[in-house]
Amino acid sequence: MKRNSNRICFDDDDAQKLLGRNHFRSLAFVVITLEGLLTLGIEAFVFLRYWDKVTGVMFSTTLLLTSAFVVVPYLRLIRTYDELNVNSVVCKDWDEEHRSVLANSMMIAKSAAEFGISSTYAMFCLALIYKGYLLHLKP
Question: CB neighbours of 43 closer than 8 A, spacing ≥ 6?
Answer without folding.
Answer: 62, 66, 128
